[in-house]
């Protein structure tokens, strides 16, 4: 071992190997195990909340979602930055300073544009749509107020929403057309389509459309509401949930965060400070000595340090002494 590093193994025969064969063989074995495990122990996933499913299962509530988008009472319609200039969900000055980065006009993007697309294949929608768009803001607001009152007394008959007599103008026809669009599954496509994006796969509006009552009530049906710690609570009993989210969700349980007007901003800042402390550990005086004092690395690598000490001592004993003539 003269001249060799004590950690370098010298007593093993080296033979040629086909690395690609081993790699593909391992890949096939792993895929086989994954497929077999998924067939035997597959997770019974809950059905996702989709626009089509919500429109089919809750037709009156779906039309109320459309109406709240039109009259500005929906969560996204009055959300605030980064979607619009509302104030409904502004938690801190940081959010307000960020500004509108992803502009959303709920009435236009969630209702009027999808109906305009539907009118191109169903011209019967066009007269009511043109009447509403062409009306003054005051007239639109009056129709929306009447529609909100009337929709609360609407009934279902054969799957159709039957409106009571009201002065809601073209809104009953428009909202029923929006319901048909949602039930057909085409509403998601209309919300996703964004001509400003080359790929036309901007899913922002599809994700935001059901914000508010639909997404706030759906978790409760799966025992995922706040008292159950939400995301780390299993939707199906007997199966693990997102346990790795325990630390982030734990921060939300701190009274100072939970009772704050800006819990998300505080939780993110606290999490960032934790990350910053870990990232800057080598340069923070005092804190950078903690890993050495705790010594967890010695416990993990105890066999390595033990073997290194033995090899080093043997190497020291057997090293020849250089004699100058």
Plain-language structure description:
The chain contains 17 helices and 2 strands. It starts with 18 loop residues before the first helix and ends in a 7-residue tail after the last helix. The chain has helices spanning 19-41, 51-57, 59-71, 93-98, 106-119, 126-134, 137-151, 171-184, 186-192, 204-209, 213-217, 246-252, 255-258, 263-279, 290-294, 296-300, 302-318, and strands spanning 155-157, 160-162. It has a two-stranded antiparallel ribbon with strand order 1-2. The chain is elongated and about 90 Å long. With 325 residues, the protein is mainly α. The chain has 2 domains: 51-217, no CATH class; 254-325, no CATH class. The longest helix is centred in the N-terminal third of the chain and has 23 residues, at 19-41. A hairpin with a 2-residue loop joins strand 1 and strand 2.
What's the arrangement of secondary structure elements?
Elements: H1 19-41, H2 51-57, H3 59-71, H4 93-98, H5 106-119, H6 126-134, H7 137-151, E1 155-157, E2 160-162, H8 171-184, H9 186-192, H10 204-209, H11 213-217, H12 246-252, H13 255-258, H14 263-279, H15 290-294, H16 296-300, H17 302-318
Antiparallel strand pairs: 1-2
Helix pairs in contact: 2-3, 2-8, 3-5, 3-7, 3-8, 5-8
């Amino acid at each position: 071992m003269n001249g060799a590093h004590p950690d370098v193994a010298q007593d093993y025969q080296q033979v040629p190997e086909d690395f690609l064969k081993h790699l593909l063989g391992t890949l096939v074995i792993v895929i086989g195990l994954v497929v077999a495990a998924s067939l035997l122990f597959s997770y019974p996933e809950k059905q996702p909340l989709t626009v089509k499913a919500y429109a089919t299962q809750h037709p009156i509530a779906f039309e109320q979602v459309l109406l709240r988008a039109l009259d500005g009472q929906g969560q996204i319609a009055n959300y605030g930055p980064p979607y619009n200039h509302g104030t409904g969900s502004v938690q801190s000055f940081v959010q307000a300073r960020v500004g509108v980065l992803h502009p959303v006009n709920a009435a236009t993007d969630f209702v009027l544009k999808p109906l305009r697309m539907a009118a191109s294949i169903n011209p019967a929608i066009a007269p009511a749509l043109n009447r509403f768009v062409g009306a003054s803001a005051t007239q639109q607001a009056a129709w929306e107020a009447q529609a909100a009152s009337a929709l609360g007394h609407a009934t279902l008959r054969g799957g159709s929403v039957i409106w009571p007599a009201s002065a809601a103008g073209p809104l009953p026809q428009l909202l029923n057309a929006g319901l048909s669009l949602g039930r057909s599954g085409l509403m998601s496509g209309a919300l996703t389509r964004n001509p400003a994006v080359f790929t036309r796969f901007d899913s922002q509006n599809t994700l935001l459309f059901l914000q508010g009552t639909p997404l706030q009530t759906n978790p409760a049906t799966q025992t995922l509401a706040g008292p159950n710690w939400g995301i780390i609570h299993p939707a199906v009993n007997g199966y693990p949930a997102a346990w790795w989210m325990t630390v982030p969700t734990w921060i939300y349980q701190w009274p100072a965060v939970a009772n704050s007007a800006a819990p998300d901003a505080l939780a993110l800042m606290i999490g960032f400070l934790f990350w910053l402390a870990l990232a800057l550990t080598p340069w923070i005086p005092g804190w950078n000595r903690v890993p050495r004092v705790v010594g967890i690395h010695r416990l993990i690598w105890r066999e390595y340090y033990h073997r290194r000490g033995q090899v080093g001592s043997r190497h020291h004993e057997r090293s020849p002494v250089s004699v100058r003539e």
